[in-house]
Amino acid sequence: MYKFTLELLFQIIGIGSASGLLLKNDQLNIISDNGTYLYAYEMKAAHLTRFPLTAHPEENIAKNVKPDFEAMTSRGNVLYLFGSGSRANRNQLLKVDANTKKVISTANLSVLHEKMKTAAHINSDNFNIEGAVFTGKDWYFFNRGNGAAGNNGVFKITGANLDKPLKISFKEIRLPAIKGVPCGFTDAIQVDDKLYFLAAAEDSNSTYKDGAVFGTLIGAIDMKKMTLDFSHQISDKHKFEGLTLQHKTKEQYSFLLCEDNDTEQLQADIYQLKLKR
C-alpha cells in the first residue's frame, strides 16, 4: 500500500484551466485546455513567461472552438502537445522546441484518431485523449472514459512515426469509482517500467460537458503486462489534470500536479504529491 502526502506548493497567476505539466531543468512547462499559449514557469525565480502556439494566440477560448490541448510529453529537446480529439477542431499535434519554445511543426491527427477508434471499437462520443507518453519507440495515449460507454483505456501505437503506425492496440483499464462516480484518466507519465496516471471522478457522461467533481486518484500500469498495478485516492474534491515527476528515491516518488478549475480564472494551483512505498 502506498502512503502519500498532498500539499499546495504554489500558485501561478496568469494561467487558466491548466491541463498538462512537464518539468525539465527546473522549468515547469504548462499547457491549458482553454488557450493557445505554452507557459514556462521558472520555479527558482518564480517567473512566468508565455509563448504563442498560433499566429493569433488567445486565452479562455470558447469551448466550441478551442483546440483543447490536454496531453503533453517530450523526447530529447522536443515537446509534443496534443489536442483531445474529442471534436473535429481538437485533432492538432504541435511539436515545440523545449528550449526556445518555438513551434517546430503542426499536424492534424484526424486520420490517426479514426484508426484508433476503429482499433478500440470506440465511437467519437467516447474518444477523449487526456495523456500521452512517448518512449522513443512507441506511443501510449490515455483515453478518458467520460463518455457514456466509459471507455477508459490505453492505446499503444507501435513505431515512432504517427503518420504510419506499425500497429495500434487498445487495452481497457477498469478503474474504481469515487462515491459511485466512475473515474476517468486525466494525465499520465512514464516512470521506469510503469505508466503513472491520474484519474478524476466527474459526474458527467460527456466528453464535452463538465460536471460536479468528486475527487482524483493516482495509479500505475505495468508497461509489460499492461495491467493495473495499483490505484489510490488522493483527493475527494480536486480535479487534477497535470502530472510530472519532480524527483525520485528508492523510498519515495515526488510528483507535481495541476488542478483544472474549469473556470475563466487565470490562476493555476500546483500541488506536490509524495508517494512512499
Spatial ordering of strands, largest sheet: 14-15-16-17-18
Distance between the termini: 7 Å
Shape: globular
Number of discrete helical segments: 1
Number of strands: 21
Low-confidence stretches: none
Describe, in plain words, how this protein is organized in 3D.
By secondary structure, the chain is mainly β. It has one helix at 110-120, and strands at 3-13, 18-24, 27-32, 37-42, 47-52, 69-75, 78-83, 92-97, 103-108, 129-134, 138-143, 153-158, 167-172, 177-178, 181-191, 194-203, 212-222, 227-235, 240-248, 252-259, 267-276. The strands form five sheets. The protein has a five-stranded antiparallel sheet with strand order 14-15-16-17-18, with no helix packed on it. Strand 2 (18-24) and strand 3 (27-32) form a beta hairpin. The longest helix has 11 residues, at 110-120.
What's this entry about, in short?
The chain has 277 residues and is mainly beta. 4% of the residues lie in helices and 56% in strands.
Secondary structure layout plus pairing:
Layout: E1 3-13, E2 18-24, E3 27-32, E4 37-42, E5 47-52, E6 69-75, E7 78-83, E8 92-97, E9 103-108, H1 110-120, E10 129-134, E11 138-143, E12 153-158, E13 167-172, E14 177-178, E15 181-191, E16 194-203, E17 212-222, E18 227-235, E19 240-248, E20 252-259, E21 267-276
Antiparallel strand pairs: 1-21, 2-3, 3-4, 4-5, 6-7, 7-8, 8-9, 10-11, 11-12, 12-13, 14-15, 15-16, 16-17, 17-18, 19-20, 20-21
